[in-house]
Each structure stands twice: as C-alpha cells, then as structure tokens.
Design goal:
Blueprint (H helix, E strand, L loop, with lengths): L15 H14 L8 H18 L2 H20 L13 H14 L2
Length: 106
C-alpha cells in the first residue's frame, strides 16, 4: 500500500504534518460524497488486529485480516477508486465494495 496517497493510510500515532495533510483532503471532499474511506476502514482493521493480539481473540484477528485483504483486492482491481486515486467512484461505492468483499471472506 506504500504507493497510495495519504488518504488511504491508517493512523496510529502519526505526526502533525501527516494530520494536517489529511485534514486538507477531508476538507476538500466534505459533503461531496467523494471522500476516500480507505484510511478509516484500514484503521478499523488495525483495531481488530490489535484486539486479537492483545486479547488473544482469533476472531478479531481474522476480521482485521479479512478487512485488510478486502481493501487490497478492491484497490488492486481498480474498478472502485475515489477521485483522489484517479477514479470516479463515490465514497459509498468504494466502501460498499470493500464491505461486500470482506463479507465474502476474500
């Protein structure tokens, strides 16, 4: 995922420069339905993986991995991409595609 823009990077204690850049992206997309949901979705995956590790919960770990794989496979296909990634998908379209893929367990 290192080749993607800042809007797809999940946060885990990043510095002020990254936060400020992220806020610029959010402000530009606010209310337009074009915001990239990937960072928030990957943050949820990180939370599940952390819970799995800290609490010994294999289901939480598996959920985090499913979400991460779903994001990676949807972005790799290239069909669903928000404008910041060079596509025309709306926020909901990309989010729904990732959710459906995660539910399939792919």
């Amino acid at each position: 995922m290192k080749n993607y823009k800042i809007a797809v990077l999940p946060g885990d204690g990043v510095g002020p420069e990254v936060i400020n850049e992220g806020l610029k992206v959010i402000r530009a997309a606010l209310g337009k339905g074009i915001g990239n949901p990937v960072a928030a979705i990957l943050s949820a995956a990180m939370m599940f993986e952390w819970l799995g590790e800290k609490c010994g919960d294999e289901e939480a770990s598996a959920a985090g991995k499913k979400i991460r794989r779903a994001v990676e496979s949807i972005l790799a296909e290239g069909k669903y991409r928000t404008p910041d990634l060079g596509g025309k998908s709306r926020t909901r379209e990309l989010g729904d595609a990732i959710a459906q893929r995660a539910a399939q367990g792919i």
